Amino acid sequence: MRAQIAAHDSWAKTVDRSARTANARKAALDRFEQQVDPDGILDPAERAKRAEHARKAYFARLALKSAQARRIRKANSDTRRNGGLQTGGDAA
């Protein structure tokens, strides 16, 4: 709890939020560039394009996993709410 308070206080006092996170953003970009061009042989512009697509694919995968988890959580919640009975679909 104290760490959370300290973090909020620190961010409240931060004048240039972009500068404060610049190193982290660069490290993330470097990770994707290393992933798409481990040998460093691509043209920098091509490497940047591929890294951007790798980044988008990474976040799309995260979004998919999140949606799947929400769907499962909702189905489990609905099942418990209905006393263990499945809802919807064919009941033949």
Which SSEs are present, and which pair or pack?
Blueprint: H1 2-13, H2 17-20, H3 22-36, H4 44-81
Distance between the termini: 52 Å
Overall pLDDT metric? 92
* Strand tally: 0
- Helical residues, percent: over 70%
Q: Mind telling me the C-alpha Rg? A: 22 Å
What order do the helices and strands follow? HHHH
Structural class: mainly alpha
Care to describe what's here?
The chain is an all-alpha fold and 92 residues long. It has a domain at 44-79. The chain has 4 helices and no strands. The protein has helices at 2-13, 17-20, 22-36, 44-81. α3 packs across α4 (44-81).
Defining traits:
4 helices; single chain; 92 residues; 0% strand; 75% helix; flat; mainly alpha
Briefly say what this structure is.
The protein has 92 residues and is mostly helical. It has helices spanning 2-13, 17-20, 22-36, 44-81.
